[in-house]
Amino acid sequence: MPRRPLDLAPLRGLRYAAPDVDRFLDDGFDLARLLAPPYDIPDAEEARELQASDPHNAARVTLPFELSRQNAAAHRYHGAAALLRSWIDDGYLAQDPEPALYVYEQVTPDGVLQRGLIGALALPEDGADAPAVHPHEDVAEPPVRDRFLLMGTARANLEPIFLVYRGAEGAASAATEDATRGTPLISTRTGDGAQHRLWAVTDPAVHRRIGDDLASRSALIADGHHRYAAYRRLRAEHTDPGWRYGLALLVDSDAHPPRLGAIHRVLPGLDTFRALAAARTVATVDPLRDADPARLDTVVSPALLVVAADGSAHLVHDFDERALTRAMPDRSAEWRHLATAALHEVLMPLWEHPEERVRMVHDDAAEAVTAARAEQGTAVIVPPLHVDQVYAVADRGELTPRKSTSFGPKPRTGLVMRVLDGP
Q1: What is the DSSP letter of 280?
Q2: Coil, helix or strand at residue 132
Q3: Would you state the torsion angle of the CA atoms of residues 43, 48, 50, 54, taken in this order, to the nearest 10 degrees?
Q4: What are the pLDDT digits (tens) for 269-297?
Q5: pLDDT band of 410, cuts 50, 70, 90
Q6: What angle do CA 153, 157, 142 make, to 5 degrees?
Q7: Which of 177-186, 286-295, 401-410 has the highest mean pLDDT?
Q8: Are 188 and 196 in contact (CB under 8 A)?
Q9: Cα–Cα distance between 419 and 14 in angstroms, integer?
Q10: What are the tens digits of pLDDT across the range 326-340?
Q11: With b meaning 16 or more CB within 10 Å and e meaning fewer, what string describes 156-171?
């Protein structure tokens, strides 16, 4: 089967109007207050705070809240679509006059710099070609359907998915770096201290060089598996040619290695000491003086920190290879040695704790321990993967267990959107 080229097309981005538009400018205007994290990061309270922070904050359309108990789901999606269109009609959002590939730069407070290209990603037809975009995680139906309904009703891609690829100093990576020598369209700092800058590359000759370079490459979904699945479903179920594309940020991981954080688990109500007793039947369990995640760097994976509500911590490691093979007979040895695989395929069945009651905590081990204490349960601290491990899993055609990785920095929502008038 021929491989489909990796194709990131220019688009006329939908962006917040420039601050020199009189009716959009007020005292102390700052674009940062209109931006939001990706839709799946804020919890319910954080989402409400974002929506209340400004009447035009992007979270009002990416995280639409119910204003009526009657026909709530339909109202939510149609309300978000109507709000988006009203912002366009009132001049708060406007499409750029020329098609562009956008260079997006993020600098985190601790100095991590990431640059990539935002454009319209060409989507494969089902079964037509070997795809150029590879997922590394499985998806669940409810969030896929949620994003499918929201984007389909709004007729827009409201935030980019996040892709990485091995650019090897190619033309696309060079064009990305070259663009940053010019004056940015946007430069702002969000409340978390991160700096965000955006440039537009409008030269068709540069677009062609980027396209020629990307055509022989493939990309890995770093963040946005559910949105990508929704893109594919929208493409399959609609005839409008605009749905042949989806908004994406593409980052060369050779030039800008992403930061991979861990996604820790909180198991409310789970008796930690009974859980550890069960774990001893398949692994070594060692008591620790503290719950420092650095302990996981000292042992061979799979390894996990299990922390009780009282703060006592244990290292679970050196799993019985026979137990791993019995639980995952059809998986590669590398997959069986992922910490999340051992957790979900070996330990969770022993613990008999419902998967739907597991709470995910991104990056912050201390937050997971605090949550376990509040819920009289157990925290499981998971080590982060390296990007090469994720590429290796995807290259073998496997998917990591759900919520195995937290790639960052994640693109901020609201800098560039895409409405369906073509790529």
Answers
A1: T
A2: coil
A3: 170
A4: 999 999 999 999 999 999 999 988 988 98
A5: very high
A6: 65
A7: 177-186
A8: yes
A9: 7
A10: 999 999 998 999 999
A11: bbbbbbbbbbbbeebb
Neighbours of 306 (CB within 10 A): 27
Tokens 């409201």, located at residue:
158
223 to 145, 175, 288, 300, 405: CA distances (angstroms): 17, 23, 33, 26, 9
- What is the predicted pLDDT for the residue at 67? 43
Interior/surface letters 391-412, b for 16+ CB within 10 angstroms, e for the rest? bbbbeeeebbbebbbbbbbbbb
| Strands 101-107 vs 113-122: parallel, antiparallel or unpaired | antiparallel
Indicate the average pLDDT of the chain.
90
As beta bridge partners, residue 195 has: 107, 189
The one-letter amino acid at 72:
A
- DSSP for residue 92: S
Q: Which of 24, 59, 30 is nearest to 45 (CA)?
A: 59
**What's the pLDDT band for 356 if we cut at 50, 70, 90?**
confident
Query: Taking the CB of residue 150, how many other CB atoms lie within 10 A of it?
Result: 22
Structure-block tokens of residue 14: 């939908």
SS3 assignment, position 295: helix
Q: What six digits make up the tokens of 64?
A: 């639409």
Burial of residue 15, with CB atoms counted within 10 A of its CB: 0-12 exposed, 13-18 middle, 19 or more buried = buried
Q: Which of 327, 332, 275 is nearest to 304 (CA)?
A: 275
Please answer whether residues 214 and 5 qualify as being in contact, where contact means their C-beta atoms are separated by less than 8 angstroms.
yes
User: Domain coordinates of the chain in residue numbers?
Assistant: 8-259+408-419, 263-383
Could you tell me the two tokens for 7? Answer: 């194709």
Q: In whole angstroms, how large is the CA radius of gyration of the chain? A: 22
Q: Exposed, middle or buried by CB within 10 Å (0-12, 13-18, 19+), for 418?
A: buried
196 Cα distance to chain centroid: 17
